[in-house]
Amino acid sequence: MKISILVDNNTIIDRYFLAEPAVSYFIETDQVKVLFDVGYSDVFLRNAWKMKIDVLSADYLAISHGHIDHTGGLDLLLKECLEARFEHNSLKCPKIIAHPDVFVPKFLDENSSIGIPVSEEVLGAHFEIQKTSEPVWLDDSLVFLGQIEREHSFENPGPIGLRGRSADRDQVPDDLMDDTALAYVGKEGLYVITGCSHAGICNIVSQARKVTGIDRVVDIIGGFHLLNPPAEQLEGTVNYFRDLKLKKLHACHCTDFHSRMALAQTAELEEIGSGLVLEFE
To answer: For a 10 Å CB count at each end of the chain, is N or C smaller?
Structure first.
């Protein structure tokens, strides 16, 4: 498996890539190519061009959850698909795979939208969309984890904002049940790839182990949503990671410095940022 970091909050030192507080990865296995999230703006496209990656060659677009810092580039990806179709009639857009709640409107408060900026109806006219709360194997080794079971009590930070349409008066606190991740089965064990981990990074890893039937976790790549976390949550996460006996750890995006330093006690913490390429057997 090869993972190219198209978007992260940081860049790799001495490499002239762009960064933004968002996430996008391009994942390649022997059988499939997956674009995982599309960041907030056109940064994922600009960095992909610099890395000589054709995002339209992806078989799937996997969406981690419906926040704008992971889906803000969807309208630009749509335009790329439309333009390419005009020039190459046979070109297909990636198939979108996401949790069924991913298109439910999300708000920071009653009026401040933080959800997907393009409607399901517009995207559905151009992309095939597979909505599922169940795990889906994208090839023999890479799996979309579906709805994450929330089993670790220390990972219960509460809702973020609201979901539902304000005009319909059906807004409720958003517990982000649409948040999910990917897992890759390699020769050494599991590699877990996350977007933001609102479901809890330990819950996500536990789900990956259950879905694949493999306990050995080699590396975790992505945002862990540890931003000034409660002491109980950080302590629980550190203890869980220590028990995993990880070989490597690539914490990025929504993981603060204090949390990274705490997690560095459990595994070799490596640099990550826009422009990085990771390859695993």
So the answer is: C
